[in-house]
Amino acid sequence: MRYPVSFLVFAVLLLGGGLKLSGQTSVSPEHFYSLNGPRSVIDIGNDLALDTSDNVLLTGRIDGNGPAPIYLGDMIALRLSSEGVPSWTRTVSLPGNIAEEGILVASDQLQNVYVAGYAATQPYGPDVLLAKFSSTGEQLWQVQYSSPTNNSPAGSSADFPRKLHVTPDGSRVVVAGVAGGCFKTIDPCLSQPSDPTAACSGKMSTRAHPMLLSR
Asked: In terms of residue numbers, what domain contains 161?
């Protein structure tokens, strides 16, 4: 059974000389924010960052309107003010995919927002998906990367981001992660390396490799 999970954000503003936490200390958040997708199935927050004005940037996955139960959701990017007030929310949903998810978020000095994640398709494994939004939430561009080994049947390989870096002026965006690899399931949240003879259509060597993308 799948239970509804909300996209939750907690923000605590600490003033003065700092705060020391012990096992007996409890802290209440100054701002609380949650977001439910249209199907109220499962919504996930994966990463957050602060821009130059201390706005809170978040990314993750929100359930979408695709065909259940196989459709897993859309990539989401959102911004909250330093006071916890939502500024904008944007989703990325690509035709023919069963899921898009934001894994990493970053910002530049102009408060543009960059999200790195994945786009999962059938019958192939997930591709790296990188999107840029303006400070007002306008999507400026998106790029999708599929490694040469990610062209075999569902669940056999995956391209996945692990680190996102943006130069202060936004002139360079670098993503590091994994390319290829042998997996039994297409769901990147659950994928585990497995016996390549069983998962890669009889191929012995669809192995994962380090990946570095630069834009």
From this structure: 7-11+29-214
